[in-house]
Design a protein that fits this description.
Chains A, B: GO terms for molecular function: acetate-CoA ligase (ADP-forming) activity; ATP binding; metal ion binding. Two copies of one chain form a homodimer. The first copy, chain A, contains 22 helices and 30 strands. The first copy, chain A, has 699 residues and is an alpha/beta fold. Chain A folds into four domains: 1-152, NAD(P)-binding Rossmann-like Domain (Rossmann fold); 303-466, Succinyl-CoA synthetase domains (Rossmann fold, 3-Layer(aba) Sandwich), CATH 3.40.50.261; 504-579, ATP-grasp fold, A domain (Dna Ligase, domain 1); 585-697, D-amino Acid Aminotransferase, Chain A, domain 1. Chain A is flat and about 95 Å long.
């Protein structure tokens, strides 16, 4: 809801025109004195209202006994009082007309059931008064452009120049460390926001506002678990539309990490592979760790995205060139052969013992003649197969001025992007390049990794821009009732949704099974049908390739006999007769419901590959056929789809249609679907078909 | 050859008692003035003999017109003259009785054929005079303990405190950068050696001498390609015996990198996977890049090797704990649940909102009460499932003294190792911990990675110590003649070597084939036999599962017909009749000859897995059965061997026996074997058998 100035509560949180500090201390060394100290030091240009009955005045500002005494409504109130008095202070803030509150106090959801109850209470108060609530258990929010340091983070101590990076973190301590690392690199943060327990304002809420600020060109995030999936996807989409890379570190990528995360945040984290798939689906750059994230952010704030995967490498060390080539290949870039013309040009530039290939080795000679370095990089960048140059240097104490001049000229004289990889660099060298808007990273591999991340991002962005057939959410399907959905019903639902599934019939007698087989056509498979036996193969409840009535009869007896023996208590609905399919590659396709993102579609390689490597990709449902195709591209086993050992390629278009159809079914059944497993799906040169299906409904 | 003082030429290179500098400059800013400058500055305690007819005196030392004028034999001569006069200076050095020479000059092997000829010439001169030659094209050698800086590396500028690390590098520029990075961390290098073109003294020669120095506890290396495989293996073995970790970065791990490396060094690099396998086989720690290497070196110089894989994580940030748990799982460590006793103890120590699990979150409260941190780490280390603690901190400007005291006490009060991961640390904090002999790294993941590397190393070392059945080299087998070895002969050789291969017979008529089948037992396989058709399947030259004479006759006609059509020029020796094997898992076993390491044995997963992921492991032949078993453990698809989808486990002992037998065959045929492919090898619960074999001989 916007006020008469067109400002809503999130504006008041992230760009407040006035701030009340409830529970302020006049001792600026104390945590609840820090906000005041920061606001004064950082030149906050809005109004400051200290609130604490103990003081008349704090930091030269009149101090109020209660927030209601101020006489006007502060846009933002920072609450820095013990947990037990937070509710009354919130009430007071609400009554005073405050629009947004930040609650520093801990002792809420992170403390178990009792804390959760207190948390529900404070959220209720905030909602009732129409206030947005950041926290509790947060370090607060910084808008560095406006000097609005509504925070007690240690990062606030020391210089905090505003810059083009908007950073939102779910962790206070780790987020502070990342912000400090950014400062060490000379990277300016325009925003720093810690969302704490996310009882109201989420990670996506903050980023969604920050992405719109034209002073921000790059977004960075530290994530422990996404609770607001749709919000996250919206921000990702918007960032892509605006051409602003969103780079995140998300922890909890392994079972150990997820266990640690859930004990840490108390929140139910969705499966990491789901986040990973959806992030990539929407062009979010996922960094391995904080340094990797900052490398990418660093490059993106200074350097144009390369227009392709060709990297020209120029070094003063053959070995570094090899290491960069290695890494480039590993991360999907290429180190193209240079054209004859480029090589000839390089030969004229370089000393006889230099190397004019790619990587180019200018040798230590360039120290005597810096133009050799500049001209080499220019020659490489002029090569049509090169889209970005990576220049490797080491040490160079005493040559910083020369190098700075060289790189300044290089920047003026070239159009394509280049990045400097400077190992054991003198600090003043890195600073000088940053001032010129040139990206300098500290190692060969980090440089190549940052390039690859931005190239991937640009490709994802182009693919999404080209993908005009955005899938519309299909109309909702009625719930089939809770639990196991009978196979005939599942197959019928899937057929209606355009998903190719082998035809089935339920038989309660052997003769009925034979009738189904005659209708479906021999050979057929028989499978025990029971809501209590979901893993039919394990109890010998499946027989395939039955060619005639005789073999069917024998199989029928065996299957029902084994089921009765293995699961005497199970309700047996009968036996499913199923059409046999064929294909050259086994796959799995399925649907899951993620707690943060809702229905997600999964595609993976089946057969033994799923045993050896969990080779699956998730996307948020629904997906277009183009998105489905990009999912397939991310499978490690994708080479199988093209046909190996003389096998023909599978009908990829049909596979993509099927994935898209399954995903639309997932979106239509979002209200009730718990899980769908099509395993195996047989893909062949003439089409695709699921030959087993298991559908579970929540209601 | 040792002299009367018991010193050989490598001692004279790496620990010279006197150094002549041939081509010295009195201008210490010039490259050929640097050695003199360094020797004076670094307090070299041996004799210095400048040699240059231009000067009477350099740096206070009498300068000689020629090396022969000195009147005594310098142990080491550094040659810093243009390439074309290197030979005459080498002759003079030889005549003067010099034991070792370092040739800085470039313009040799790295310059193509002409340079190679010059290189052969200088090597010949050195050999003739019994001198060991380091270079040419090298930055030289440092023994920092003795101030012997026989080098012009930029690393020599600035402080170079000797320390427990011996570092050998094949790259000058990259090696200099790594040395500078080590200095930035406060890591002391006792030795720095750049081997340049390795015409005589190799990487392994240098390390082999350095490993024996008791002042050295850790070895580090930068490798572009190993030319002296046996030497490398000896050093690796010796380092393990002495309990000194050897950590290397090797570039050229991808095709792009290998291409770049071969154009850079001019040397034929062996396959990277071969190096990788052999390095792990001998306990060499392979780091991804320079920072990863230095992290491991850093930890190993201060911290005892953990006795197991259990990591206790103590942080001030839940998020960092999650990231470390993630990484621990990814690199094969575990983050064990703590005992009830430990948890109870932690609950007493921590604030209510801390986390007493593993990871432990002490929260920012520990700043007020540092004993909370110390006692938490102690509690975690006392847990029987924890073998090492990782403590994560950030920033802490202003708290360095407190933390230093805390960690000093912690070190005194615990026996198990711990490592500090300190993000955005104040420099003085890192320095203080280093002075206490406590390892502090700069990030969560680097810390976990370093721990994992040392745990892996210790395990490899223990395994090797336990592996008493070191394989002896079997007696050499006579060469079977160059090229394709006929299948009957190959199978017979392999049978004699104890390798289980399906029985075969060569038939030149259909009736003869039936006779073989009767002898071998039905069913059989038929395969075209021709030295010109090595990929038989591709031309339809294989049929399997032939159950009787009738089907064999038909298959015989088809196979010979297809071969005649597909390869009309091919010499056809007949048709091989082969016993059919059975198994549950397809594997490949083979032998290769590596240019640096000689015969190597390869094991991999077969079938479609080899198409999707190149899942193979190499070791140097011969290997023991225990080594074979460790090779299997490194396969990504190893889970297949235990039986998936209800399949029984394969006979792993038989598989290991087979691998060992193949490897001994490789060692016995080292003089002539080019390649052996057993593909597929069928492994099942009742044994293993190769059902196809291809053996190629060089002579």
């Amino acid at each position: 809801m916007k006020d008469c100035n067109g400002r809503d509560a999130l504006d008041c949180l992230l760009s407040p025109r006035s701030i009340a500090i409830v529970g302020v201390s006049s001792d600026f060394n104390k945590l609840n004195g820090r906000v005041m100290k920061f606001l004064l030091e950082k030149g906050y240009n809005g109004k400051i209202f200290p609130v604490n009955p103990k003081y008349e005045e704090v930091g030269g500002h009149r101090c109020f006994a209660a927030i209601g005494d101020i006489g006007e409504a502060p846009e933002l109130a920072v609450i820095s009082v013990p947990a037990k008095v937070v509710p009354e202070q919130l009430e007071a803030a609400g009554k005073a007309g405050v629009r947004a509150v930040i609650v520093f106090s801990s002792g809420f959801g992170e403390m178990g059931e009792e804390g959760l109850e207190k948390e529900r209470q404070v959220v209720e108060i905030a909602r009732r008064h129409g206030m947005r609530l950041c926290g509790p258990n947060t370090l607060g929010v910084i808008n560095a452009f406006e000097g609005a340091f509504a925070t007690f983070t240690q990062y606030g101590m020391g210089s905090t120049n505003p810059g083009p990076v908007g950073f939102v973190t779910q962790s206070g301590a780790f987020g502070t460390a990342i912000a400090a690392l950014a400062r060490k690199r000379g990277l300016g943060l325009g925003y720093f926001a810690n969302t704490g327990n996310e009882t109201d304002v989420t990670f996506a809420d903050c980023l969604g506002r920050i992405v719109e600020d034209p002073r921000i060109t790059t977004l960075a995030g530290y994530i422990e678990g996404i609770t607001d999936g749709p919000g996250f996807v919206s921000v990702a989409r918007r960032a892509m539309e605006l051409g602003k890379p969103l780079v995140v570190t998300k922890v909890g990528r392994t079972a150990s990490g997820a266990r640690a995360a859930s004990s840490h945040t108390g929140a139910l984290a969705g499966e990491d592979a789901v986040f990973d798939g959806i992030a990539r689906q929407h062009g979010v750059i996922r960094a391995r760790n904080e340094e990797h994230m900052l490398d990418i952010v660093d490059m993106s704030t200074t350097t144009a995205c390369p227009a392709g995967r060709g990297v020209g490498i120029v070094t003063q060390s053959g070995g570094a060139g090899v290491l960069m080539s290695d890494r480039a290949e590993e991360v999907g870039l290429n180190v193209p052969q240079l054209s004859e013309e480029t090589v000839a040009r390089l030969r004229d530039i370089l000393p006889a013992f230099g190397a004019a290939g790619n990587p180019v080795d200018v040798t230590a000679q360039f120290i005597a003649d810096p133009s050799m370095l500049k001209e080499s990089v220019k020659a490489v960048l002029d090569d049509p197969n090169v889209h970005v140059a990576a220049v490797w240097l080491q040490l160079m104490d005493g040559f910083v001025d020369t190098l700075t001049r060289t790189f300044r000229e290089l920047k003026e004289e070239t159009d394509k992007p280049f990045v400097v990889s400077w190992v054991a660099a003198p600090e003043e060298g890195l600073r000088a390049l940053r001032e010129l808007g040139i990206c300098a990273l500290r190692g060969a591999e980090p440089t190549i990794d940052a390039i690859a991340a931005l190239v991937d991002w640009e490709e994802a962005r182009q693919a999404r821009l080209a993908d005009t057939a955005a899938p519309s959410d299909p109309p909702a399907l009625p719930a089939p009732g809770p639990g196991f959905v009978p196979t005939e019903k599942s197959v019928s639902l899937l057929h209606d949704a355009g998903v190719p599934v082998a035809r089935v019939g339920l038989a309660t007698t052997c003769e009925q099974a034979i009738e189904h087989a005659e209708r479906i056509g021999w050979p057929v498979a028989l499978k025990i049908e029971s809501p209590d036996i979901l893993h039919k193969t394990e109890i010998g409840g499946v027989e395939i390739g039955l060619k005639d009535a005789e073999s069917l009869r024998a199989a029928y007896e065996r299957i029902t006999g084994r089921a009765a023996k293995a699961a005497p208590q199970a309700r047996i609905d009968g036996v499913i007769v199923q059409e046999m399919g064929s294909g050259t590659v086994e796959m799995v396709i399925g649907l899951r419901r993620d707690p943060g993102f809702g229905p997600v579609v999964m595609v993976g390689m089946g057969g033994i590959l799923i045993e050896v490597q969990k080779d699956v990709v998730f996307n948020r449902a629904p997906v277009t056929e183009a998105e489905a195709s990009r999912m397939l591209d991310k499978l490690k086993g994708k080479v199988m789809l093209d046909g190996v050992r003389g096998a023909p390629p599978v009908d990829r278009a049909a596979l993509c249609r099927m994935i898209s159809a399954v995903s639309r079914f997932g979106a239509a059944s979002a209200d009730w679907l718990e899980e769908l497993d099509l395993n195996p799906v047989l893909a062949g040169p003439d089409g695709v078909i699921a030959v087993d299906c298991l559908l579970i409904s929540e209601n």
